[in-house]
Amino acid sequence: MNGGDWLWAVGGLAAVGVLTGGIGAALRMLQDGKNFNPSFMAFEPLGPGRYWILGAWLPFFVLNIVGEEFVWRGFALPRQEIAFGRRAWLVNGIPWLLFHAAFPWQVLLTLVPITLLLPYVVQRRRSTWAGMVIHAGFGAMGFLVLAFGLA
Q1: What pLDDT, on a 0 to 100 scale, did the predictor assign at position 20?
Q2: Mean pLDDT over residues 82-94, rounded?
Q3: What is the enclosing helix (H) or strand (E) of 82?
Q4: d(CA 144, CA 140)
Q5: Are 44 and 147 in contact (CB under 8 A)?
Q6: Which candidate in 7, 9, 95, 146 could, as Cys together with 130 as Cys, close a disulfide (CB 3.0–4.6 Å)?
Q7: pTM
Q8: CA-to-CA distance for 145 and 141, rounded, in angstroms?
Q9: DSSP code at position 70
Q10: Which of 9-13, 45-49, 65-69 shows the lowest mean pLDDT across its residues?
Q11: Into how many domains does the chain fold?
């Protein structure tokens, strides 16, 4: 990655964070104390005797990020660019959002910024690595916030 790629990746990650945070805040206000998440989405912060989960999570995290970026941006996006040109990022992002359809609608709504901005940055910079930086930063922050009970 060159300096411009890093700038776009860090800027993209910041934009995704701000937009996701804004959507999350709006949803919390609208929920008015109700929890719409299904029971399988309940998270308890890690405590003594459960910190091993951080080590177990690391290989999954790497495989998930690298795997998704290889398939969605390394394989699919270049082919979509041939078919859809400058709008390929949108054609890539919408199915990537739908790929996460097992999540509740509130979670899907919070994923809209990353599923649209990340492919845009990758297409604009022609750098799958920029997508990996954004995806890894977003995924790590989300997991660590939940793991340590910060949200």
Answers
A1: 94
A2: 97
A3: helix 77-84
A4: 6
A5: no
A6: 9
A7: 0.88
A8: 6
A9: I
A10: 45-49
A11: 1
